[in-house]
Fold this protein.
Amino acid sequence: MSDNTTKPEEKGFFEKVKETIENLWDGTKDTAEEVKDNAADTFESVKESVGAKKATVSRKATAKKTVAIKASAATTKAKAVAADLKAKADTKAKEITAKAKTEVAAAKKEAADVKAKAATKAKAVTAKAKTEAAPAKKAVASAKKSVAARTTTAKKKAIAAK
């Protein structure tokens, strides 16, 4: 027969807290990266559409000035949209990171509180045990003294009787 059990090992409180914190942090980092990637993709697609519009405008327009004005207006508009999207993505990523840090700090504080409570409880139990053990030690000591006194008296009587 095997001594191994099929049940998984049970994890302690601090291991569970640690795993929860790690999962929160990993999820937050993933979300921030996704937001940043989406912003970059949107920026690229806006650039591409502006480039396509520029090319179309230059073919169809007859006057060079009209083409240049439209192209610069489209480029300016695309840059403004891209800058706005990038700013929004950065802000969102910062908010998510700040929230994760707050949650991690709260979890760490809770774990520290539980640890402190456990230490206080252990100290209280130790102090109680010491106070309860003192009278018992005194009783044992007095019993030893009385037994020693009786033994000494008995030895003296035995010696005197010889």
Summary: The helical segments are 13-60, 64-161. The mean pLDDT is 81. The first helix runs from residue 13 to 60.
